[in-house]
Amino acid sequence: MARPARLCGLWALLLCAGGAAPTETQPPVTNLSVSVENLCTVIWTWDPPEGASPNCTLWYFSHFDNKQDKKIAPQTHRSKEVPLNERICLQVGSQCSTSESDNPSILVEKCTPPPEGDPESAVTELQCVWHNLSYMKCTWLPGRNASPDTNYTLYYWHSSLGKILQCEDIYREDQHIGCSFALTNLKDSNFEQHSVQIMVKDNAGKIRPSFNIVPLTSHVKPDPPHIKRLFFQNGNLYVQWKNPQNFYSRCLSYQVEVNNSQTETNDIFYVEEAKCQNSEFEGNLEGTICFMVPSVLPDTLNTVRIRVRTNKFCYEDDKLWSNWSQAMSIGENTDPTFYISMLLATPVIVAGAIIILLLYLKRLKIIIFPPIPDPGKIFKEMFGDQNDDTLHWKKYDIYEKQTREETDSVVLIENLKRASQ
């Protein structure tokens, strides 16, 4: 029993010693080359090392600059989608196992050539947004050393295209330059694994090309929703709207804004998912979302707007909100300005009425209380002139005594006329 036990122990020791022995280092790979397909697809290829051990199953260890994105695989090629704005290098080595701790061969490096041209002439802030899964809009700013009359051209490619296409719809918005192109063929495919490759340059070759890769799961901006109906029930406001086309309800998040005219406040409600379950909702509810706003006063004017964005259930990006929908209002407008105006106008109206009343008070008194006729006054008016003349002559004596005698000369007018002739 002791001898077999010693034999087993010796066999285990030999196995451990063999396992601990370092793996033989293989020769480096040969004929490492690099090429670019489409716009931003970089492909490295190589041949197996010469003089490799026949007992070694070759695996290839590779990584990019700064030992990023390490990979161990049996294939003699590797590809990567990467913007070619800078030089990209890949290092490749061979080894006999899939362990990263194994000593690979001497690493061989191959880099892509850097873009030609002045780096300060390349466009900046190149950004692309996929609008409503229908078209993509890219914008950029001219480079610092670019000529103001530069004619820019945008090229794009994605997996559904057989070739690289040129964007024709170039436009300018203030300092930004942009271009938009249709992108609808991917909505029914597995676009989560795809991206759009973008390159902007000029036809004259005076500026440095600029590249960008837009994943189709990010930078997605939906169209605004459409509000279909608002109604009150049990002190709550129910909102019914229709989602933008090309989107599933589970892939969207919502923001409902309610503006109350009395409080002059904007209440914001975040809605992740809301299905129409109330019997009051009408029509075809497919693609329709419903939400209840609690405790809303029906005797005030309430204005509702809605916007949407993609969520992380279906997309990687959830930061791009759509534009606000067209506003819809319900309730009565209790604008305090009207009441304030009436409050200020009432004293003015009352004061004006009092002034008019005072001006016509005498007239109103005569109309309301007419004077009683005086018969004596009538006779007085009939004989008033004669009585006045009689009284006037009674003041003087007809036989008034002459107090002084006056003598006047008499001139014969006829004689004077004849003398003058």
Q: What is the quaternary state of this protein?
A: single chain
The helix content, as a percent range, equals 10-25%
Count of domains: 4
Using the 3D structure, state the CATH architecture of the largest domain: Sandwich
Percent in strands: 25-35%
Strand order of the largest sheet: 12-13-9-8-16
By CATH reckoning, the class of the largest domain would read: Mainly Beta
Radius of gyration: 53 Å
Number of separate strands: 23
What name goes with the CATH superfamily of the largest domain?
Immunoglobulins
**Shape assignment:** elongated
Low-confidence stretches: 1-22
The sequence of SSEs as H and E is HEEEEEEEEEEEEEEEEEEEEEEEHHHH
**Main sheet attributes: strand count, strand direction, barrel closure:** 5 strands, mixed
> How confident overall, as mean pLDDT?
80
End-to-end distance:
206 Å
Class by SSE composition: alpha+beta
Domain Type I cytokine receptor cytokine-binding: 125-218
Pfam family, one: IL6Ra-bind
Keywords: Disulfide bond, Glycoprotein, Membrane, Receptor, Repeat, Signal, Transmembrane, Transmembrane helix
GO molecular function, one term: cytokine receptor activity
Put the structure in a nutshell:
It is a single-pass type I membrane protein. This is Interleukin-13 receptor subunit alpha-1. The strands form six sheets. A five-stranded mixed β-sheet has the order 12-13-9-8-16, with no helix packed on it.
